[in-house]
From TrEMBL:
It comes from Ancylostoma duodenale. This is Uncharacterized protein. The lineage of its organism: Eukaryota, Metazoa, Ecdysozoa, Nematoda, Chromadorea.
Length: 60
């Protein structure tokens, strides 16, 4: 009886840890995607700025 209760509790805890892990993993994945998207936007802005600087240099 006691061992069944302990085993059931252990299984419940393991399952709750797995669920929590998966939730955190999804949040981290979403954050990484957002950071990657922002890096791409910044890279485009920097590329445009570099081209503008070159253009200004060539005109001077």
């Amino acid at each position: 009886e006691v061992s069944n209760t302990v085993e059931n509790r252990r299984r419940d805890l393991i399952e709750s840890v797995r669920v929590r892990r998966d939730e955190k993993r999804k949040v981290l994945k979403d954050q990484i995607e957002a950071i990657t998207d922002e890096k791409k936007k910044l890279a485009k802005v920097c590329d445009v700025a570099d081209l503008w600087i070159i253009y200004e240099f060539l005109l001077s």
